[in-house]
Design goal:
about 270 residues; alpha/beta; Rossmann fold; 2 domains; elongated; binds nicotinamide-adenine-dinucleotide
C-alpha cells in the first residue's frame, strides 16, 4: 500500500534517477525544531506580526524593538536542535553526484545538521552588518554569536554606528551571488525538492517554477497546499520531519546501497 503522503515507489524511482538534485527549504523545515514560521499563528511576537518586524522601515522606526525580536529568535534557535528533516537533507548531500541546498531560513540549523554547502538566500541571524555606509562592516558582515545580546541594539565594533541583522528583509533584494547561483541551480538541476515554504516570497518562490520550466521533476513537501502546488509534479502532504527520513530510506531501498556513496563525515551514515 502506498503511504498517505503520496510518496509512491514511482516517484522515489524518478527522484533516484536524478544526477543533479536541488533542495529549496523554508521556515516549515525548522518548525519541528520549535522555530516559529512567519505565517503560522506562532509568528506573532508581543502582538507584532513577524512580517511587519522584518522590514527596514520597522528597523528605522524602532531598532530596539526589531533587535529585541531578533534576540528572542536567536535565543530560541540557540536552544533548538536540528530535526529529522534537517538531518535527512544533510544525508542527501553526498548521495547525488551534484547536489545544492538553497534555504530561505536564516537560523543556521542546516549547517548544524551537517549540510556543508548551503546557499543562504536570506542571510543569517548569526551575522550583522553596519548601517553606516563608509564603514568596512557595511559591506562585510561580521559574526554576532553572543546570545542573549549584551547590548540591544548592538553597535558596530569598528565605527560605533548601529548594526543590523545580516538578513534580507521584505522589500530588499537577495544577495547577488546567492541570486545568481540559485538561478543557475534551478535551471540545471534535474530534480528539485521544495520543502516547508509557503512559496510566496520571491524570488525564492520562482525557483521551483524555473526548475519545472527547465524540465526538472519538482516535488513539494508541505503540511498544506501552496500557490505552486498546481504547477509542480507532486505535493507530498505531511510534516517534513516525517516525510524526509522516509524519502531517504526509500531511496536506499530503490537504488541499493552500492549505487550511493556514504554520507558525510562526523555523522552516522544512513545511506550506506
Ligand atoms: P512561511 O512561514 O511563509 O511558510 C512556512 C511553510 O511551511 C508553510 O507553507 C507551512 O504550511 C509549512 N510548514 C509548516 N510546518 C511544516 C512542517 N512541519 N513540515 C513541512 N511544512 C511545514 O516560510 P517561508 O516560505 O520560508 O517564508 C518566510 C520568510 O521568513 C523567509 O523569507 C525566511 O527567510 C523567513 N523565516 C525564516 C525562519 C527560519 O530561519 N527558521 C523562520 C521564519 C521565517
Amino acid at each position: 500500500m502506498e503511504p498517505a503522503s503520496g510518496l509512491t515507489r514511482g516517484l522515489v524511482e524518478r527522484l533516484g534517477k536524478a544526477s543533479n538534485l536541488a533542495v529549496l527549504t523554508g521556515a516549515g523545515v525548522s518548525q519541528e525544531s520549535g522555530v516559529p514560521t512567519f505565517r503560522g499563528e506562532d509568528g506573532l511576537w508581543r502582538e507584532c506580526r513577524a512580517e511587519e518586524l522584518a522590514t527596514w522601515q520597522a528597523f528605522e522606526t524602532d531598532p530596539h524593538l526589531v533587535w529585541s525580536w531578533y534576540d528572542y529568535r536567536r535565543q530560541l534557535v540557540a536552544d533548538a536542535e536540528p530535526n529529522p528533516a534537517h538531518r535527512a537533507i544533510a544525508d542527501l548531500e553526498s548521495a547525488f553526484p551534484e547536489f545544492t541546498l538553497m534555504t530561505q531560513n536564516t537560523d543556521g540549523l542546516h549547517s548544524r545538521a551537517g549540510s556543508r554547502a548551503v546557499v543562504e538566500l536570506h542571510g543569517s541571524i548569526w551575522r550583522a552588518r553596519c548601517t553606516h555606509e563608509p564603514c568596512v562592516n557595511w559591506r562585510n558582515p561580521c559574526e554576532l554569536r553572543e546570545s542573549p545580546l549584551r547590548e540591544i541594539p548592538p553597535h558596530c565594533p569598528a565605527c560605533g554606528a548601529l548594526l543590523r541583522p545580516d538578513v534580507v528583509w521584505y522589500g530588499e533584494p537577495i544577495p547577488v551571488k546567492a541570486y545568481e547561483r540559485s538561478h543557475v541551480v534551478a535551471m540545471n538541476c534535474d530534480a528539485m525538492l521544495v520543502i516547508g515554504t509557503s512559496a510566496i516570497v520571491h524570488p525564492a518562490a520562482s525557483l521551483p517554477l524555473v526548475a519545472r520550466h527547465s524540465g526538472a521533476l519538482v516535488v513539494e513537501i508541505n503540511t498544506t497546499y501552496t500557490p505552486i502546488s498546481a504547477l509542480v509534479d507532486a505535493t507530498l502532504l505531511g510534516r517534513a520531519g516525517d516525510i524526509m527520513p522516509e524519502l531517504v530510506a526509500r531511496l536506499v531501498d530503490v537504488l541499493g546501497p552500492a549505487e550511493r556513496p556514504t554520507v558525510g563525515p562526523a555523522r552516522k551514515p544512513t545511506l550506506a
